[in-house]
Amino acid sequence: MGINIELRNWRRWTTAALLGLTALTGVVPAEAEPWTGRFAYARPVFGEVWRASDEAVANGRAARSYTWGPSPWFDYKEFYRQSPNGLRQVQYFDKARMEINNPSVVGARGVTNGLLTVEMVSGRLKTGDTIGFEDNVQRQPANVPVAGDPANENPSAPTYASFQGVATIDNGYRDPDRIGQRVGSVLDKSGNRTNNADLARDPATEIVTYNTITGHNVPRVFRDFIQNGPVDGTFAFGYPITDAYWVRAKVAGVDKDVLVQLYERRVVTYTPSNAAAFRVEMGNVGQHYFQWRYPHLGQPWQPGEYGNFNLPVAFASKRATADHWETFYTDENGVAVTQITSGQQETVPYSWRRAYGQTDYPRLMTDSKRDSGIRKLFSISLGNASDVRQHSISQATPQLFNPAVSPDGTQIALVVQDGDFSTLAMQPFARDNAYPMYLAFNDKKCVYQSPTWLPDGSGLVYAMSCEGGKFAVYRADLQYNFMSDMDISVSLVNPRALTNTPTADNYFPRVSPDGARIVFSSNRNGQGDLYLINIDGTGEQRLTNDPADDGAASWSRDSSQLVFDSNSDGDYEIYRMDLNGGLPRAIQLTNNNVDDRWPLWYQ
Questions:
Q1: pLDDT, tens digit, 9 for 90 and up, residues 1-53
Q2: DSSP designation for 12
């Protein structure tokens, strides 16, 4: 299989695209566990910190609850203005988040776990060291229960927002010293306080410490837990930001009285009805914060309820309209094909916006000519075909295409073309009709194509041709100066070529989900073939070698397979290839007399 592709044909990414929409059938369920197959720890030091406190629990040598959780389930480079390139390494666990703000601090001393509780109660997402607007993004406080089951199963339980009126969050709030008293104060979801004398009979709730820094009382049961725990109390918890309160919450579906206290970094709970070793536990602050910060992503820590589901492969086809492309999807075996779009203009898929949970669905990111025949950006929900959003400016020019959604779903990298040349740009996903910020100013008459994200969000891989030369695959870092839900200031830095074939084109790169390799197409042998390289450009491997045109490859979630298009049977069809030798070299997924192209495997 090969790719009989002239450059001008490949630049259908500069001339062809999209959309009108029809009802969607065969609704696709959201998928869980998105980081299965990734390295367990984004940094070795994260593993060291985890093992120091939780390895004994995981191995059954310690009868107590986890400090972090059984394993990490999400890692990323989140914006933090004072970190290198404005990005800091983070990794989420059930109970908290590990982060490295300053990589120059060596070892475990450089690992912190963030003021997540403060952020959720105040609604201020912390993006830097200062208290100014440039380092804080104001949102609504987190409407996530502080204890017990998730909100859909625990709707009456107090949330982080419920604690605003009794919390110290840069507002000078302090509680009076109540040493010697027992805790009978009850807080409901509306933030109302009452007293329950029966609950105050528990001697474990006697207040034994008053924190003079934040002005809050600590009952014996929490003081002892923190003092005798496996980690330093200040490192793990910070200072208390509330007194302890009883709340009523569903725990495993059963209504229970739970004593909770909010600290800067953690929530600690006391459930008298639990077994003795588990009466005091860390709250699931990592899960709670993730739901607040990334509400569109769902709950990736949940086991894979849809683990046996055949993940969809979107593609463009002329099977419905011979004069333009429409978008379809099939499963990974090509068993059923569903039409997604239908209209007078072309629709071509380019990337997915992930969703892992049962309250949201993935969105298919496309470019479209539905806006006055000019290519613009649109996304379509796979759960509701009428849920279509335009993400780009509505003016006639420039043309916007190749929209690559960031792995965390917050940004769109894209190509902007105005005239004969183009450049890469970025815009927040949340902002409709946004004018994109240029990542690189085009002073060399360059043409950019096909951006694809590094899995940790720290950079892009793309194809570029300058001064009329051949296309090469490049990698560059992203440097952020500001980021909010609706605005962004970012530039492309440290670009370097990963391929070097001066007489042939290398194009349409895609980075593997595990971040280890890049697949791309090249016509260096007279036809288009698929190639692999390592993420640093080494270890090149040719995957296809035949007279046909092979191209536009997209990875499976576990980085072990590819889907791609090929005209080996006379017209373009979609194929699947196993890189580990477990399947025949290529399995044909579509088979008809029209072109099916540009497959996109959901990850």
A1: 333 222 222 222 333 333 333 333 333 333 445 555 566 899 999 999 999 99
A2: H
Number of alpha helices (DSSP H) and beta strands (DSSP E) in the chain: 7, 37
Phi, psi dihedral angles at 41 (to 5 degrees): -125, 130
HSE, side-chain direction, 13 A CA sphere, residue 500: 5
- Pair 19, 376: CB distance under 8 Å: no
Instruction: Report the distance separating Cα 215 and Cα 169, nearest Å.
Output: 12
By residue count, the chain amounts to 603
Tell me what pLDDT residue 17 has: 31
Rounded distance, CA 353 to CA 34, Å?
12
Whole-angstrom Cα distance, residue 533 to residue 411?
A: 26
Nearest of 303, 562, 287, 388 to residue 24 by alpha carbon: 388
Question: Whose CA is closest to 250, among 329, 334, 146, 170?
Answer: 146
Structural domains of the chain ordered from first start: 7-32+304-601 (2.120.10.30), 35-113 (no CATH), 135-286 (no CATH)
Mapped onto helix, strand or coil, the DSSP state of residue 526 is coil
CB 72 within 8 A of CB 41: yes
The answer to whether the predicted template modeling score (pTM) of the entire model surpasses 0.70 is yes
Q: Write phi, then psi, for 251 (nearest 5 degrees).
A: -120, 115
- pLDDT tens digits for 553-570? 999 988 999 999 999 989
DSSP state of 55: H
What is the rounded CA–CA span in Å between residue 6 and residue 18?
22
Average pLDDT of the residues of the chain: 89
Dist CA 25 CA 380 (whole Å): 13
Instruction: Indicate the SS3 state at residue 497.
Output: strand
Residue range 138-164, pLDDT digits in tens: 999 999 999 999 998 999 999 999 999
Q: Residues 6 or more apart from 113 whose CB is under 8 A from it? A: 96, 97, 98, 99, 235, 236, 265, 266
